[in-house]
Amino acid sequence: MFKLPNLPYSFDALEPYIDAKTMEIHHNKHHQTYVDKLNEAIKGTEFENIEINELLKNINKIPQEKKQAVINHGGGHANHSLFWEIMTSDAKKREFKGKIAEEIKKTFGNFDEFKKQFTDAALKVFGSGWAWLVINSNGKLEIIFTKNQDSPLMNNLKPILGLDVWEHAYYLKYQNRRPEYIENWWNVINWKKVEQFFKEANKK
Ligand code: MN3
């Protein structure tokens, strides 16, 4: 059975960019609900003991009547688990540097161009969804967005950075001002962790 992962920092760690109340509700209520409903969906099936990313990569093996529930709640579980990890209060880990910085510059030209393209993807999501930096099947970095809780893993893409643009991620503090939420989110990215995911994804 799946479990809600602990937040790797306190609810107020990302203030003033992301407020404590939003983090508490987002983690304790929204993410918990995805975990509960995922467990409900896979109860009694052979998928109870599989790792979440493996479950999503094998989404086409899920029985038809349970598939959409696994896409929604399994995706919700995986997406949020990554999202908590790629943010931090630690100023050192927020520094944009290392292998991942080199690769981003190589792919997009410079950081500002990358930021612009990623922000555009996040703004383009109509309704609920996510913007992602993924490693595609050619081993290259690519910016994409997904609807609802659809996971890039279902399309054989390896996510290494993701931004939740569901209203529940920002409404308490930013109301309808998604652009302001996105702009502020750039301050809390854990580039150290993104680099770790980048290296791990390249190994497989
Ligand atoms: Mn969310």
What do these coordinates show?
It is a single chain. The protein is mainly alpha-helical and 204 residues long. It has a single domain (19-204), classed as minor pseudopilin epsh fold (3-Layer(bab) Sandwich). Helices cover 50% and strands 10% of the residues. It has 8 helices and 3 strands; from the N terminus they run αααααβββααα. Strands 2-1-3 form a 3-stranded antiparallel sheet, with helices on both faces. Helix 1 (20-42) runs antiparallel to helix 3. The chain is globular. The two termini are 25 Å apart. The mean pLDDT is 97. It binds manganese (III) ion (MN3). The site of manganese (III) ion (MN3) has 7 residues, from helix 1.
Quick rundown:
With 204 residues, this protein is mostly helical.
List keywords for this structure.
binds manganese (III) ion, mainly alpha, globular, 10% strand, 204 residues, three-stranded antiparallel beta sheet, minor pseudopilin epsh fold, 50% helix
Strand content: 5-15%
CATH class: Alpha Beta
- State the fourth-level CATH superfamily: Iron/manganese superoxide dismutase, C-terminal domain
CATH topology: minor pseudopilin epsh fold
Ligand roster: manganese (III) ion
Mean pLDDT: 97
Topology:
Elements (H helix, E strand, L loop, with lengths): L19 H23 L9 H6 L6 H22 L12 H11 L2 H14 L4 E7 L5 E7 L10 E7 L6 H4 L3 H8 L5 H13 L1
Antiparallel strand pairs: 1-2, 1-3
The protein binds manganese (III) ion.
